[in-house]
Amino acid sequence: MRTSHLVVVVCFLAGLAQTSFALKEEDCEVCVKTVRRFSDSLDDATKKDYKQIESAFKKYCKAQKNKEHRFCYYLGGLEESATGILNELSKPLSWSMPAEKICEKLKKKDAQICDLRYEKQIDLNNVDLKKLKVRDLKKILNDWDESCDGCLEKGDFIKRIEELKPKYAHSEL
């Protein structure tokens, strides 16, 4: 009788450990969000064929920037990708596997996939630009696809951002 209780307890603890190790969105945020966004862009016919999914992913990757572009590189979705584990994305997607599970599998193949993190967004309506580093000011301009020709000092970058702010930083009503 005692061994059956022990078996039940061990099985319960193993099940509990399994659920606690399940990947959460925040553990692999770029992967999960990119896979979801990509999956949502596919039509039903494409979702059933993993070869079509791979072709669609390569097209999808051409328009990606920053962390999503890096994610595409890791999977082999770009021409310049050194390796490719694209089938680790396309086949599970064709089976309607959730993004978290796909990313869990991808992490086992290449751990750096889950090392990708989004940077904290800067609230331009409430931040003092003078307190930001030049690197952050350059990033704001880069995110807007804008340049700052002739900018040498921090003040030049701040002036350029202030000029462009009405175009990009819309205040919430």
Structure keywords:
173 residues; mainly alpha; NK-Lysin; 60% helix; ARMET-like; signal
Task: Write a brief structural summary.
This protein has helices at 2-20, 29-41, 44-47, 50-62, 66-75, 87-94, 99-109, 134-143, 154-168. It is an all-alpha fold.
Plain-language structure description:
The chain has 173 residues and is mainly α. The chain is 60% helix and 0% strand. It is built from nine helices and no strands. 20% of the residues are buried. Residues 27-122 form the ARMET N-terminal domain. Keywords: Developmental protein, Disulfide bond, Secreted, Signal.
- Largest sheet composition: none
* Rg computed from alpha carbons, rounded to a whole number of angstroms: 22 Å
Percentage of helical residues? 55-70%
How many separate domains? 2
CATH T-level topology of the largest domain: NK-Lysin
Global shape:
elongated
The top-level CATH class of the largest domain is: Mainly Alpha
Please describe the topology of this protein:
Elements: H1 2-20, H2 29-41, H3 44-47, H4 50-62, H5 66-75, H6 87-94, H7 99-109, H8 134-143, H9 154-168
Helix pairs in contact: 2-7, 4-5, 4-6, 6-7, 8-9
